[in-house]
Amino acid sequence: HLSQRLQLVAKYVPARAFLADIGSDHAYLPVNLALNQRIKRAIAGEIVSGPYENARREIERFDLSSMVVARQADGLAAIKSAEKVDVISICGMGGASICQILTAGWEQLKKFARWPRLILQPNVGSMEVRCWLQAHSYQIIAEEILEEDGHIYEIIVADPGKSQQLLTDQQLLFGPFLLAHKDLTFQKKWSLEIKKLKRVLVQLHRAQIEPLAKEQQLQQKIKIIEGVLNDKG
Ligand code: SAM
User: Fold this and answer.
1) pTM of the model
2) Residues 223, 121 within the same domain
3) What is the ipTM of this complex?
4) Range of 220's domain?
5) From residue 136, how far is each of 96, 117, 189 by CA, in Å?
6) Distance 151 CA to ligand 1 centre (A)
7) Ligand 1: which residues within 6 Å by Cβ?
8) For atom 2 of ligand 1, which residue has the closest CA?
9) Which of 26, 121, 189, 228 is deepest in the core (most CB within 10 A)?
10) Which 3-state string (H, E, C) describes 88-112?
């Protein structure tokens, strides 16, 4: 059974796709999609031996080795040059790691006749991910936000193509689709963020060693978030 988070990721994998799930750990996502006949083929890429063995075991357990292959590799190196994957998913890591994997694989990605869809689920640092996408001619086509087991997760889906307009700083920070909806989970995430920033401010005050600029920066950020949360338009 897939977590709600990975179910939402799965929703954006087109039917009959060839999927590369990078940082797959147990390969839960590709195995579930293959079991449900939702995909044609999949690669489960993993850099670390333990998780790679988990992936292999899971694939064997369901007798799926004709459809899903586990490869121990760093990032997109799990994809061979002749393999025309339709979708790359990278889930459950920080935004910086996701961007690092995409940047390292960019030369390879660029060569695709049809660039794959990217489904990214950064645990933190989603702004960095949106900036990367915009700088590399990917357009965000959908976003999801959900809470599961006390964590709030964001999912960003992007297809190749430049959008007419560049994303604003606000859209990059909050997510263009998430910002347009501002659903309850979104409100909760950013209310928590304000609380966190305010705690940092108090600590800075107590320490009295931080430069004023840092304090102003935090106050500015709190103002921006409050502005978004209070704007009901
Ligand atoms: N994608 C699964 C999910 O969302 O449930 C597993 C997430 S797990 C927290 C992150 C996995 O990414 C770890 O198993 C880690 O070893 C792997 N990983 C981190 N950097 C990687 C890289 N450069 N290439 C391949 N795998 C990587």
Assistant:
1) 0.96
2) no
3) 0.99
4) 185-230
5) 15, 13, 27
6) 18
7) 6, 22-25, 45-48, 51, 74-75, 91-93, 97, 101
8) 24
9) 121
10) EEEEEECHHHHHHHHHHCHHHHHCC
